[in-house]
Amino acid sequence: MAKYIFVTGGVTSSLGKGIISASLAKLLQERGFSVTIQKFDPYINIDPGTLNPYEHGECFVTEDGAETDLDLGHYERFLNIPTSQANNVTTGRIYQTVINKEREGAYLGKTVQVIPHITDEIKRRVKLLEEHTEHDIIITEVGGTVGDIESLPYLEALRQLRQEMGSTNLVCIHLTLIPYLSAAKELKTKPTQHSVKELLMTGIQPDILVCRTEKPINDEIRTKLSRFCNVNKNSVIEALDADSIYDVPILMLKEKLDTIVLRKLKLKLGPDPEMIAWKSFLGKLKNPTSEINIGLIGKYNELQDAYKSILESFVHAGAYNECKVNVISIHSGALDSENVEHKLKELDGVLIAPGFGERGIDGKYAAIQYVRENGIPFFGICLGLQCAVVEFCRNVLNIKNATSEEVKPRAKELVVHLLPDQVQIKKKGGTMRLGAYDCKLKKSSLSAKAYGSTEISERHRHRYEINNKYVDQMKEAGMIPVGINQESKLVEIMELKGHPYFVGVQFHPELKSTVESPHPLFMSFIEAAKKYRLSKG
Ligand code: GLN
């Protein structure tokens, strides 16, 4: 049977439960345990697929096509193992299952209630991961902050599980904030005391406190927290603000978070992990030998979480190239053919981000035309590829009304269109082309060189596709389909002949980049941008 670690959050949101969970998981993995992480989100949506990025940041897609919370991206990036639908559960999904069962008559005339029916379904979902694969340890992150009305059923389920499993099989970590009051020049423990009290009211005594803080916490604070929160002093862990999220596993190792957890779970300790590969990655990340400026053109730029996986992919691939990648966020709505040169001329490469809808699309076309004509490295992801195809058809093939069905559904020249099996779909949730699909690459392509293979598999999340009716014309004019799905014959990658680096992909490579395996296309894009910068002198 797997052992369980629950991570709850107190005082405020955004303390980094996902990063703490992923860091602890990494340390346990390095010690030889098989670990996975799951996230429970208390909102009523079935999944974040229908949420605006401004609400919830990026939607992370797993191999099996689940649209999930962006924390799953951190889990994959840290652990280098894929997650699945079972790793992300929402209140919407829990209720949907219970209500469907009620309609089937599965509750045999009983009154269906939060306790035991909703809590039982939560408990079943907690253990579901164990059914799929064997794990030594499962970390469960409970979204939201203790005290939220919506998290109550999760905390009740946790209380029951703890009572059923016992404290050597289930450990509770509470992540909390120790604010620094600059006027008083003091760190304050009171919010944490209150938050633990709140947790105690649900019947849960945390075993370990992880304290986010901007200043080191001294012995006095540890003693105070230990006394008021009923936690052993050595189980009060400092989580100091770090320069990079990738420093956190090393900080947690120094604080012995993994050791304390393993002792509580009565698992074998063994020697401390050396974290050789991780430290080598950090070394390169912090000591770059070159620098480039990449423009990230999108429309959700105000919120950095909207492009989380893209930004992290640049961190991974940048570190491996020993290159500092300055990602400059550019709002596509602020670009037009008049100002595009002025706004982009200092850049060494341009990435056109994924997205939905027509807002800001003309700025994307203008940017693509500029980089295409001026030999500036270009990387288009999903909508980025679709825009590159429209721009090429308009300005090179001279199909002046070329457009995408997403932007102008009734137009004649739909060079990007809905597939017949998408036309009838009315429901928005979970109906896109989602998850991993195979793709075969043309041997001589830049992409095949980057991957070092002609057989790849990448994750998708889109409704629209390149219209095969126009592909031959594009090919003749130099826009080459170099990646094709053999089953559906859909074009997955386009490259522009004669351009130093012009690659557009229909899938989301950013979802597969990890610390240990940076994505080949991000690596090759960075190399191209470095070369371009050198060529400028
Ligand atoms: N909106 C486009 C589509 O649905 C692109 C989606 C994306 O960039 N993820 O096909």
Descriptive overview:
This protein has about 525 residues and is an alpha/beta fold. Strands 13-12-14-15-23-22-21-18-19 form a 9-stranded mixed sheet, with helices on both faces. It starts with a strand and ends with a helix. It contains 19 helices and 23 strands. The model has no long low-confidence stretch (mean pLDDT about 95).
The computed structural class is alpha/beta
User: Rg to the nearest angstrom?
Assistant: 25 Å
Into which percent range does the helicity of residues fall? 25-40%
Q: Overall pLDDT, averaged?
A: 95
The largest sheet has its strands arranged as: 13-12-14-15-23-22-21-18-19
Bound molecule kinds, no repeats: glutamine
Enumerate how many helices there are, as a single number.
19
The parts where pLDDT drops under 50 for at least 5 residues are none
User: How would you sum up the major sheet?
Assistant: 9 strands, mixed
Q: Give the overall form.
A: globular
Distance between termini?
61 Å
**Strand residues, percent:** 15-25%
Total strands: 23
